Amino acid sequence: MSDPQNLLNYPQTRQSDIVDNYHGTAVPDPYRWLEDPESEETKAWVEAQNKVTFSYLETIPETQLIKDRLTQLWNYEKYGTPFKKDRRYFYFKNDGLQNQSVLYVLESLDGEPRVLLDPNTLSEDGTVALSGIAISENARYMAYGLSRSGSDWQEWHVLEIDRGEDLSDRLKWIKFSGASWTHDHLGFFYSRYDEPDEKTQFESVNYYQKLYYHRLGTPQSEDVLIYERPDEKEWGFSGGVTEDGKYLIISVWKGTDPKNLVFYKDLTDPDAQVVELIQNFEASYSFIDNDDRRFWFQTDLDAPRGRIIAIDIDTGTRSQIIAEAEETLEGIGVLNNRFITEYLKDARSQIKIFNLDGTFVREVELPGVGSVGGFGGKRSDTETFYSFTSFTTPTTIYRYDMVAGESTIYRQPTVDFDPEDYAIEQVFYHSKDGTRIPMFVTHKKGVKRNGNNPTYLYGYGGFNVSLTPTFSVSQLVWMELGGILAIPNLRGGGEYGEDWHQAGTKLNKQNVFDDFIAAAEWLIENRYTSTEKLAIAGGSNGGLLVGACMTQRPDLFAAALPAVGVMDMLRFHKFTIGWAWCSDFGSPENPEEFKALYAYSPLHNLKSGTAYPATLITTADRDDRVVPAHSFKFAAALQAAHNGTHPVLIRIETKAGHGAGKPTAKIIDEIADKWGFLVKILDISVDFKTAKA
């Protein structure tokens, strides 16, 4: 159910006569001017589009009821997983509706918590977010990064923990970097870019990252350059100090490809040079820990689901410690002189403990089917903390005794719903080429498979990212509305290791869209829903997924919600960090890969005169990850091509970015608008009386 299109007066979007030639193919780009977010014409266009969109959304009375319910459910204490440095414990907590979570410090586990840093005091609207922290080994100092209005750019500061006051240190133009302290507590390593042009800092391409050492109390201009590669503009550097303090491990990345190089520097020798230990982009190598000059790595070399090896840095000799398993190795740490490993089995967490020689000790018993985080700490620690969550389990924090092998609840939130009212099932279906794909389907118990249930099909399918069960108030409210939540684990993700990832990249990218379309068809065939009741959604690479599927199969879905999506597959590499995605997407500069990109690029596959699903595109004016021009150009082209009665709208958030650090208030507003849009399009009756008061 939706308003006739003639009730929506879309802004007229100027078309230019720009045409590009790609390997002999002429490709018009009439909305190129929307790539300049600072032009007066673009700003006027944004204002006009938002006016149409919000005028439409304001006609949906149910939105306020949904917002009230979201706010009610959202208002519960949320704890992060505690971590320990020296004698102190640190953790994040949100009282409920705070725009940003607050960082606390404890002098002992049962001590009185003290606010260490409250980002909510840094801006009136919550748009300044804490984007990274690093505590010195003696727990005296904390380096921390701040992001403004959702930008990837960070400014780093240093706080003295005892006094709770900032020092004079200010580090700018940092992006895609953490910080790692030397064990003398005098400074830390970090990576940065050269200062960009102020006018184009949110669009200009990011190349030539450099690794630096900053000494406390000195200006950034005096920071010591540790490593750079002027001959390799795409290389990025992540520097981390080993637990014994002897080495700086430098992971060299190139775009989003999981393959990396590993270099190291001996910190005990002031004259030591950087040594190139792993010199070829042959596989993924993640440093775990070391026994002096014997380094342990998690790698997918000759093991697409992951294994653990040791490398003697004197001889280069390699030995296997833990072999590849049937499950996918996600992460590993060393606690109580044992390896503690996280595996994924059909997209759900398993935790296994091994001795340092690789012999199996035990599996950690988890509360159910879900996702785990945490298990951090030092090699000698006998206690650690972890989080557990599922579709119906709010994130709960556990303390784990490494000696006794026992978990006890440390923090358990109270949310205003009964998890017993909901059913979670994992189904398997077959994609177009016969590949077996898992999918989680969650809904209220008692839902009838009559083909009439509003269904929210959410996907990602890329960059080795695994979608695992997590609790979400927004998803809970969707299910309270009678909706079904369906999340398939598409190829391109990391659920089944690197082979699964590669099966959804470059010339294989169409597999991802086929997997998602097959999920929709399976849900319809099995009478969970129908085309008239089916909405698809995804963000970033998932926004691309939605854009590709709605252009390939506009007949299959009633609604589409692409968020901060990559929509122009011929120019994505020309902005900020977009070039880095060529490892997953391929490059338009390559003739063969261009053909594949052009064949599914959402912007270039809209067909004039087609009735497209009701669409609510969402983006933000300060997104410098996937620049908003992708969504701007797609919205303009969609409105020009669309010949149906459903609305095709774009909602452009201000003072926000790609998603990280977005204030709670903005998140709730956006979700309420999305659910309100779907309530109208899918003809859902809103009645929260059956929900707990």
The percent of residues in helical segments reads 10-25%
Strand segment count = 39
Low-confidence stretches: 1-6
CATH topology of the domain at 21-72 and 417-682: Rossmann fold
Please characterize this protein's 3D structure.
One of its GO terms (cellular component) is cytosol. It comes from Oxynema aestuarii AP17. Belongs to the peptidase S9A family. The chain is an alpha+beta fold. Among the domains are: 21-72 and 417-682, Rossmann fold (3-Layer(aba) Sandwich), CATH 3.40.50; 325-414. Helices cover 17% and strands 34% of the residues. It has 10 helices and 39 strands. The chain has an 8-stranded mixed beta sheet with strand order 32-33-35-34-36-37-38-39, with helices on both faces. Strands 3, 4, 5, 6 and 7 form a 5-stranded antiparallel beta sheet that branches. A 4-stranded antiparallel beta sheet has the order 8-9-10-11, with no helix packed on it. β34, α3 and β35 form a beta-alpha-beta unit. α2 (62-74) packs across α10 (664-681). The longest helix is centred in the first third of the chain and has 18 residues, at 40-57. The radius of gyration is 25 Å and the shape is globular. Mean pLDDT is 94; it is low at 1-6.
List its salient traits.
693 residues; alpha+beta; Rossmann fold; eight-stranded mixed sheet; 10 helices; 39 strands; disordered N terminus; EC 3.4.21.26; hydrolase; serine protease
